[in-house]
Amino acid sequence: MTSEGWGTPPVGPISQHYIVCGGNALAHRLAVELVEHYEVPVVVLVPDRTRDHAPQIEQLAGVVAVVEYSSVTEEALRAVRVETARGIALVDGSDQGNIHTALSAQDRNPDIRIVLRMFNQRLGDNIERLLKNGTALSGSATAAPAFAAAALSRPNSVQVGDRFLHIAYDEDIDSGRICIVADRIDRQDLSRIRLLPEQEGDSAPFVRLASAFGGDGPVRRTRVGAPGTGAGSAGDAGGTAGAGGTGDAAGAASVPEQSAAPAQEPGVRPDRAARDRPDRVPEQRPEQRPEQEPGGVAALQALPSEPPIRIGWSRRLRWRLLDTLRYFTSARLRLVLITALAAVLMAFGLLWYLNRDFGWSLYVSLLDLAGAAQPDQHADAAAGTGTGGSWQRVAQVVITFCGITFAPVATAIMVEVLGSGRRGQPRNPGAGTRDHVIVAGLGNLGTRVVAQLHGLGVPVVGLERDPQARGISAVRALGVPVVVDDGPLEEQLRRARLKHSRAVVAVSGDDATNLEAALEARAGKRDVRVVVRLFDDSFARHVYATLDNAASRSVSYLSAPAFAAALMGREVLGTLSVFRHVLLIAELRAEEGGALVGMNRHDLEDPGGVRVIAVRLADRPHLYNWNYADRTRRLEPGDRIVVAASRSGLARLNTTITDGN
Questions:
Q1: Predicted local distance difference test score (pLDDT) of residue 82
Q2: CA–CA separation, 340 and 326 (whole Å)
Q3: What three-state secondary structure class fits 278?
């Protein structure tokens, strides 16, 4: 049922439901996550049922009610039955308003799970201490790394322990591979992508045997780590890992997955290795295997550290000098300074050529530049005892007059900088701005993306139409130049030095504006990298199908799974993008008496949904056992598992754990 307007009677008797407060894109995606993947009753509290995404939210079949209140007041919380709810997500409004609502909800229902969106992350961390069962997340902070990484044409990463997990495609897959996370990738038809496909390759038969027999079957009784056992070659485990040991990412690469080469012993031909294994299941000949569907492959890989952005120090120095010169001087002053400097250098060169003494030439030049030169007397010149001929005198005169020019120019610069208060005025992109990223739209997300790129040492230029946008001051505080203009996008991009840029990131709140910025950027520079923030999937498909060197991301699509998982009490370490699909990296703890205790990898893994990528044993909590080799070992209290999961896969795992409890 759906409420019919503001001031309607409260939601009917309901309990164990989840409340979403907001009518924006994130509220829409979050409601979809909850009703489609977690299959829980949802009540949505919107400020206006006719605006933003409220009409689409009302069309969702799993939403129990949509209630309209202009603000989240005590009356609104009573209307959505916060007293009997299991959780509430506050994904709209200001930080201050969300904090007030969270504390009010906790007063009315001390056991309710609270997830609130906070732009100020430090404030959010402190607020979590005031909440009995709550967490603060930032949608823009969750999504910003994906946008920044897309602008740099590199995958975004999630830190797990001392490693950084990222997605690699096709020929970029190397020895750091942990597991295959997607196949059948067709860039012209992204609906063909299959996430977390079923295990294939040499070890697939043994994985199926282990799954069939479990802990009581013959796989358990074979020697751990022997060829063909579930421990040494099952799944995507590292071949070097034994029971309770560690299999690192490099070891995982020796285990075949889809489109991977069969593993073999060093120095042994593959056909001989197959004959020498008595327990090896006969491998199908190519003509016996079912045809694989065409398409690319994506793999989850681990790096010891995030790859740095390398820009040569000489280029950085040149850009800095040019930017500094432009910052302190106007075009006319620069022309005067450059002309005078060139004349001084030429005159100094002439003095050096005539006297063949660098030290003396420098000494005389500096004195002349300061106006302290001692000219030749007429009598000395007539007697031929002067300092060195007509050309030397010409050089000294040039240097002296240029020195006279430098003094007033320096005074003019100081007056212009200090007297006019130029330091507080907007800083435009300098002539030395090169190989930079243009971020169009300085809202919450744009500000985060600028900060992310600036922290990586990448030159950035901000572009904003609204002079009142709150991100402008934050970006300027970083020393990043900003173009503020409500004129044509073509002119704004020109002022942002599009011709010299490496990428354009369009992250305003409107899909049409972002697409317009992308097309204008591509018209101005054919090979520029384009990253577009799009909510609408049809727009995204057109971007991938028609534009080369382009990427599309959605903030709500990237962050909603993390908000939904947090609402269910699960810790999501981060999200990874596989084009428009989302892969969640989450960590689960086996609690005493919980459903995870007693489960093994066969129970947890779900083709297409969940893949266990690491295990932290209770007795060694700081050690990540990547691709834990023993697939039949059951979890004990205190053990932790790190999983890569699709949205629906994590939801199913959450349901299994909840039902088990």
A1: 94
A2: 17
A3: coil
Check residue 309 and give its pLDDT: 63
Give the residue carrying structure tokens 């409260």.
10
pLDDT digits (tens, 9 = 90+) for 35-76: 988 889 999 999 999 988 999 999 998 899 999 998 899 999
Residues facing 300 on adjacent strands? 167, 179
- The number of helix segments (H) and strand segments (E) in the chain equals 24, 22
Query: In this structure, is the dihedral angle defined by the CA atoms of residues 651, 653, 658 and 659, taken in order, positive or negative?
Result: positive
Kindly compute the dihedral angle of the four CA atoms of residues 494, 496, 497, 498, in this order, to the nearest 10 degrees: -70
Q: What pLDDT score was predicted for residue 272?
A: 36
- Whether this prediction's pTM lies above 0.70 is answered by no
pLDDT value of residue 326: 61
- Bin 246: left if φ > 0, else alpha if -120 < ψ < 50, else beta: beta
Token pair 């970083």 is found at 478
Which residue matches tokens 């005169």? 397
* Residue 537 to residue 636: CA distance in whole angstroms: 43
CA–CA gap between residue 243 and residue 625 (Å, rounded): 10
Residue holding tokens 């010891």?
Answer: 304
The string of DSSP letters for 378-392 reads HHHHHHT-SSSHHHH
| Secondary structure class of 307 (helix, strand, coil) | coil
Looking up tokens 């106006």, which residue turns up? 371
Residue 539, pLDDT above cutoff 90: no
Residue 522 and residue 546: Cα distance in Å, rounded? Answer: 12
Burial of residue 181 (CB within 10 Å: 0-12, 13-18, 19+) is buried
Average pLDDT over residues 479-505: 89
Distance separating alpha carbons of residues 283 and 257, to the nearest angstrom: 15
Note whether 530 and 504 are within 8 A (CB): yes
- Residue 116, φ and ψ in degrees, nearest 5: -125, 140
- Token pair listed for 606: 């779900």
CA dihedral (186, 188, 191, 194) in degrees, to 10, reads 10
User: CB of 323 within 8 A of CB of 431?
Assistant: yes
Q: Which residues pair with 439 in a beta bridge?
A: 462, 505
| CA separation for the pair 575, 555 (Å, rounded) | 11
1-22 burial code (b ≥16 CB/10 A, e <16)? eebeeeeeeebeeeeebbbbbb
> Average pLDDT for residues 527-556, to the nearest whole number?
82
DSSP-derived pairing of the beta strands 571-578 and 581-589: antiparallel
Residue position matching structure tokens 């022997």: 226
Q: Residue 256 pLDDT more than 50?
A: no
For 144-202, the pLDDT digits (tens) are 888 988 888 877 788 898 888 988 888 888 878 888 888 888 777 777 788 888 765 44
Q: How many CA atoms lie within 13 A of 449 on its CB side?
A: 35
CA–CA separation, 23 and 89 (whole Å):
12
Q: Give the helix/strand (H/E) hosting 281.
A: none
More confident residue, 254 or 360: 360
